[in-house]
Amino acid sequence: MAQFVLEPVAVYPLIPRPVAIRSSAVADMAFAAIHPEAGRIDATLPDLGCGLAWGSVYKVRPRIALRCPECGHGVHAKLSPFKLRYFAHDPGRPADCSWLNESLEHHLLKLELATAIRTVGWHAQMEVRAADGTWRADVLAFSADGTRRVAWEAQLSPITHEDIHDRTSRYQAEGIGVCWVGVAERLPWMGVVPSIQVCDPHGERPWTVVDGVAGFDYEDGVWSIVDDLPLITFIRWVLHGQTITHRILPRYRRIWHGDQRRYTRRQTIWTTPRSISSEARHDAMRQRQEAWKQQQEERERQAEQRRQEEAEARRREEERQRAIRQEAERARAEELRRKWAAEAEQRRPRREAELRQQQELDRAAERERLQQEQREQQAARIWWDDLSSTQLEQFRAAVTGSLRKKGLRVEFDSEGPTVENAYGIAIYQRYRRYGVLRPSPASMHRLPSAVPVFVRNAREAQQIIDTEKIDPGRVIHFDLPDGEQLLLL
Ligand SMILES: [Zn+2]
Fold first, then answer.
1. CA 129 / ligand 1 centre spacing (Å)
2. What is the pLDDT of residue 323?
3. 404-407-411 Cα angle (round to 5)
4. CB neighbours (10 Å) of residue 415?
5. How far apart are CA 5 and CA 42, in angstroms?
6. Is the separation of the CB atoms in 253 and 165 below 8 Å?
7. How many angstroms separate the alpha carbon of residue 258 from the centre of ligand 1?
8. Cα(72) to centroid of ligand 1, in Å?
9. Ligand 1 centroid, distance to 182 Cα (angstroms)
10. Which pLDDT belongs to residue 470?
11. Which residues contact 436 (CB under 8 A, 6 or more apart)?
12. Cα angle vertex 216, ends 215, 217, to 5°?
């Protein structure tokens, strides 16, 4: 550290602008060398960083024995066609010196970084190694008071995530800030570690940061890339603490890339404390909103639960009421059934009495019917006992004769007197009952009123008419005598 005199840094226009550095060819080029007496010298500083003039090492005879800080091989001072001061290895250089494998573009980017750092008032040292070899910075920036250091790594070749993380951690372990600088688009480590993408000058446009720096838009709640920031401005902001690295809060890691019209995922960006607090406020607001939303959802959930519980209570109450009604109906039906049973029980003796009475009546009626029948039979026997068979023949002949006069041919029922014919003898004409011969007066009620009856004489006719109040027109009688003996006379 002794060689760094902390005095105002002279700004030295080392690179004629613009310089297009699209060359990826490796160049044997270094900006630092070890001077046998002055120690480390820097070709990018007017006094080589140690009070020596360029002329004291460039094209001097005898040659100064300068050595490569990296490999220890001899180097000599050179001037490029663009008047760029640098050191190159002497013939017979070791092939593995890392500086030999760096492109011209890489050298020029390092030079640009160092120049910008010095322009904003900090010291810059090229190609610096840690004493213990744990790190080797392309450009190490020192604050004027020597308290702060920031390593600037021009990373133009591919590097694994593991390597870049590892190297970043080593700087951070020593309290050294770091910024990885790339030129290609869509670098895989962009936003993984503190990093920026730069664009080399075009026309009047200087070196510009096009990726890695972002601002937070509170309105939209999104980070968006600041894509047109002069590199020197960025370096000033970083070294003066106005721009710092920030690990984006998880929900904001989809950041807007305005010039590419797309979102990309990033973890780490360079930004201002103001944007960081804006993000924090937005996050707090979002958390409040989410908490409110959750509360709202919880309230709705509870309300829904209450509604369901009330509906369930209503359902249970309705069920209870229904059960009560059913029980009441059942009890009423049971009561009715009991009442009817009781009434039936009350009615039973009466009904049985009625039944007994009816049966008694029926039996009496049957007795009466039988008595009547017996009476009628008795009467019929007496009625017919008066008549001899001769008298019967005589009577039948009279009837037959009388009806023949009317042109009717009749037959007498061979069964003789029957109860169906009121104990008289049916007279058939062409198989139909035409009338009844000598029915018993006591049984006349057994014949339909239209059936004519035939008797022997007026006395018998009168007897029939008197007994049952029969229409005299129905009764046809002859003049046959009552007694047999009279016939004999
Ligand atoms: Zn070397």
1. 13
2. 96
3. 55
4. 10
5. 13
6. no
7. 43
8. 6
9. 24
10. 81
11. 421, 422, 424, 425, 426, 427, 447, 451, 452, 453, 454
12. 120
Distance CA 341, CA 267 (A): 93
What is the mean pLDDT of the segment spanning 43-61?
90
Q: What is the percent of the chain with per-residue pLDDT over 70, rounded to a whole number?
A: 93
Name residue, tokens 């008795």: 378
Tokens of 98: 């890392």
Cis before 62 (ω within 30)? yes
Alpha carbons 442 and 226: distance in angstroms, whole number: 144
Q: How far is the CA of 113 from the centre of ligand 1 (A)?
A: 21
Q: In this predicted model, what pLDDT tens digit does every residue of 167-183 receive, in sequence order?
A: 999 999 999 999 999 99
Cα 27 to ligand 1 centre (Å): 12
Average pLDDT over every residue of 361-367: 91
Mean pLDDT, residues 324-351:
92
- The whole model's pTM is what? 0.59
CA separation, residue 392 to residues 144, 364, 414, 416, 483 (Å) = 179, 37, 13, 11, 12
Q: Are 214 and 271 in contact (CB under 8 A)?
A: yes
Please name which of 249, 263, 264 lies closest in space to residue 187, comparing C-alpha atoms.
264
Rounded Cα gap, residues 59 and 273, in angstroms: 50
Q: Residue 305 Cα, ligand 1 centroid: separation in angstroms?
A: 78
Alpha carbon of 33 to ligand 1 centroid (Å): 9
Work out the number of other CB atoms within 10 angstroms of the CB of residue 229: 19
If you measure from the C-alpha of residue 167 to the centroid of ligand 1, how many angstroms do you get, rounded to a whole number? 22
User: Residues within 5 Å of ion ligand 1 by Cβ?
Assistant: 68, 70-71, 97
Stretch 375-401: mean pLDDT: 90
Which residues are within 8 A (CB) of 306 and not within 5 positions of it... i.e. 6 or more apart? none
Task: Please enumerate, as own/partner, the contacts of 380-386 that have beta carbons within 8 Å and a separation of 24 or more.
Answer: 380/417, 380/423, 380/440, 380/442, 380/443, 383/423, 383/438, 383/440, 383/441, 383/442, 384/417, 384/423, 384/438, 384/440, 386/482
The percent helix, strand, coil of the chain (3-state, each to 5) is 45, 25, 35
Tokens (6 digits) for 221: 């709640």
Q: Are 266 and 253 in contact (CB under 8 A)?
A: yes
Could you tell me the distance, in angstroms and rounded to a whole number, from the CA of residue 34 to the centre of ligand 1?
11
Q: Ligand 1 mean position to 140 CA, how many Å?
A: 19
pLDDT of residue 7: 36
Residue-averaged pLDDT of the chain: 88
Q: Ligand 1 center to residue 246 CA distance, Å?
A: 37
The residue behind tokens 């009330």 is 310
| Ligand 1 centroid from CA 107, angstroms | 14
